Amino acid sequence: MISSSEYGSHSWELSVTVDHQHEEVQKEFLLQVTGDLHIGGVMLKLVEQIKVSQDWSDYALWWQQKKCWLLKTHWTLDKCGVQADAKLFFTTQHKMLQLRLPNMKTVRLKVSFSSVVFKAVSDICKILNIRRSEELSLSKHTELAVKKKRKKDKNSKEPVTEDILNLCDSPVSSGLSGSPGLYSKTMTPTYDPSSGTPASSTITWFSDSPLTEQNCGILALSDSNCSPEILAEMYQPRTLADKAKLNAGWLDSSRSLMEQGILEDDQLLLRFKYYTFFDLNPKYDAVRINQIYEQARWAILLEEIDCTEEEMLIFAALQAYHISKLSLSSEAQDFTCESEVDEVEAALSNLEVTLEGGNTSNTLEDITDIPKLADNLRLVRPRKLSIKAIKPYWFVFKDTSVSYFKNKESAQGEPIEKLNLKGCEVVPDVNVATKKFGIKLLIPVAAGMNEVYLRCENENQYARWMAACVLASKGKTMADSSYHPEVHKILSFLKMKNWTMSPQAVSDPENIDMKPECFVSLRYTKKYRPKQLAARILEAHQNVSAMTLVEAKLHFIQAWQSLPEFGLSYYIVRFKGSKKDDVLGVSYNRLIRIDIATGDPITTWRFSNMKQWNVNWEIRQVAIEFDQNVSIAFTSLSADCKIIHEYIGGYIFLSTRSKDQNETLDEDLFHKLTGGQE
Question: 569-674: which CATH architecture?
């Protein structure tokens, strides 16, 4: 019996369900509370009533109807808005979650369901030893991929059991946020810069962690077991609209997993969301480099990004004989073998590669005189009703513009035309086998995009002009310190493409232990017989055979970055004032409006020219204002507009990173740029 004095005029009953494993103890409780009782007091009352001796420190109150956590324990029930009709759930904040990694392996670990996704991903990356967690995020499986999986499961006679690496006993995933990571706070795990295997000093830190030296290979080394049958079972986008649907599943980084309907033991995808890979270092980033490589590999195999046959063979060659074979040999070797420090440092200095996406311009390194290019090139202008007009001219490249003249002698006068490349799209038009070295320029004009082709004579001329065009499109000149590295990157990619058949290099493809169909997309397995594919991959392999394992992966990533579609995330949108749907491509430095039927770019807008952007949450419309009074507005049809808003803010946030920050991130700035005000 409860005395009448305990029933104050302001007291009421609060229903709380407790999530615990004690079958003999009740789970439903009614607490007598008042509105001025704080959340901490409610939990204290509840634990006293449960009368079970256990650690309740990871438990918190979840408000089911409002889909929110009550984490501010000093707030009162009145301030939180909790009344008698509320149904609260007293449950653990850390729960089991299955994560499908970029290498298609699944790990199971404990993750905070109460922290915002940005923080949860940071904790996950500490467990997996992946630096720069801000580049990754969590995504749900797309509906189309789920439908294909259901169809496969329905057709298969035997149930498919997936190998899952269980990390639930890891020190980091034991349930406390802010854990130091797999290793100690003061020591950074290091890897052999050539093979990507843990250094001998690092391997001792694994101690009792599930990430033992055997399991480490799942994260840092590659597995090429991918048959055409496996590829056929996976979802492959066929159109631009299909590619847009791949990006619909990203979770909101400013909300927790529980708030977004994720349940315990659900499976999510852990992927690199932002294609700006900052400060890659083989000494510390073996896992990160391997996962980036794997994401690139699967994107190419599933044709999520387009590439030519020549490029597909390069990617196959890097996988087939090099990365796969070396990964197998790395797995077989003794992880504890010692190597000379000098050799490791030398390998590191040779291998340290900064891939595009970081802030590479350094004004102190830039030269004061802006150089220019002047050479004979051929100009190609596509015509709708006639053959392409190809004419030689004398071209001069200065600042961010290209001018062309009738000949070298007339270069002192007025040019025939001056093309301003700032904000243009630059697309390689290259076939090394046929000695075709072209540069496709899509230059913004009032009516859309003006299409122009430049034809170069050889690799060196192409590399210089292509690098100048790429920098000019970003508003940079050849005086920028990134010009020469860009030339070198283009030349190295062309060198990989440039192979000739040599009898000693290719013996008999039948005698070689390889399944060539595992390294190319289904389109090419249908086009060529296995023997033909093996011979062609062997040809391409000659140019990459001298690389170390990590070097081969970095070259694979660089080649992926060189593809025209690299880094573009697509969304189907409807622009304000338009009567038809378009595709919006979001990249690390620009937005592109693309014709959904033809795939041709219509307009490009650079982030560097952006003044402000906002979202009208009532009508779910994104509005962006650029320099020179240019404004656009659109609604998203293939995904929530919050995803696009977060992409734009996320890329702007990542552009503020510098190596001086000592890997500390301004999380408040990220949420300010990406969170929005709903």
Answer: Roll (2.30)
